[in-house]
Design goal:
3 helices, alpha+beta
């Protein structure tokens, strides 16, 4: 950009500046593409190696079913193991299901 602005009408310097800007844009596209491809591949490799069944069959994942305390005076929160999200949210209104977690690891559970 500076080379182009200081060319003062010199066609050779303008052409050189234009080539440099185009080369910089192409380089930036290559770097961003390489980052995106690397991130995509790494994320899929890590997700595939975890052995989790959540992506293929989310209904069969057990975990913790958390229901916050409500009312006045407030009731104690409920933390129960559940076999699926459907079992958790179908049993308790306002429940949150934490797949693959023990209730002792969920914040708010006693």
């Amino acid at each position: 950009g500076i080379l182009w602005m200081t060319a003062a009408g010199n066609d050779a310097r303008v052409a050189t500046a234009r080539r440099l800007i185009i080369a910089a844009i192409i380089g930036l596209i290559i770097v961003v593409s390489a980052y995106a491809i690397t991130t995509f591949i790494a994320d899929n490799l890590l997700a595939g190696s975890s052995g989790s069944t959540t992506a293929s069959n989310p209904a069969s994942t057990s975990g913790c079913c958390y229901v916050p305390g409500t009312g006045n005076p407030p009731t104690a929160p409920i933390c129960n193991s559940a076999d699926s999200e459907e079992a958790c949210t179908g049993t308790y209104a306002g429940a949150t299901f934490y797949p693959g977690q023990q209730c002792s690891a969920v914040a708010g559970c006693p």
